[in-house]
């Protein structure tokens, strides 16, 4: 049975808690947190990213997050809290669901860059 983007987003939003920018900032202050920007490179180049965030475009996420992948990024560690963001929250929701499916347990979606860029210094 075919799945629509709307259905995929509903499933992702049900699996990955949405947090506020204040909650994200507190998690970052607490430590052992990975912040991931899943926007495309031109978006990041145009607006910058949250200080300390790792940029991994949505299309490469699975490869960077899987320790068995030759493209694995050592910043991805299943013991860390992972906070994701994109431009408006859709890609970060889908990315969070993928990470949950891959065994990451503490995954959160803060939504769009503009929603929290003021709460955490760029």
Automatic annotation (TrEMBL):
Rhodanese domain residues: 29-121
Protein name, entry field: Rhodanese
Pfam families: Rhodanese
An annotated Gene Ontology molecular function: thiosulfate-cyanide sulfurtransferase activity
CDD domains for this protein: Polysulfide_ST (cd01447)
Cited InterPro entries: Rhodanese-like_dom, Rhodanese-like_dom_sf
Gene3D superfamilies linked to this entry: Rhodanese-like domain
């Amino acid at each position: 049975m075919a799945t629509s983007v709307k259905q995929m987003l509903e499933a992702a939003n049900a699996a990955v808690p949405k947090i506020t920018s204040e909650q994200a900032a507190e998690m970052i202050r607490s430590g052992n947190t990975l912040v991931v920007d899943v926007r495309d490179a031109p978006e990041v180049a145009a607006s910058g990213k949250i200080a300390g965030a790792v940029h991994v475009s949505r299309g490469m996420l699975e490869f960077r997050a899987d320790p068995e992948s030759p493209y694995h990024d050592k910043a991805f560690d299943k013991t860390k809290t992972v906070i994701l963001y994109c431009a408006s929250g859709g890609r970060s929701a889908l990315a969070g669901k993928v990470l949950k499916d891959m065994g990451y347990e503490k995954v959160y979606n803060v939504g769009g860059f503009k929603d929290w860029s003021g709460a955490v210094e760029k």
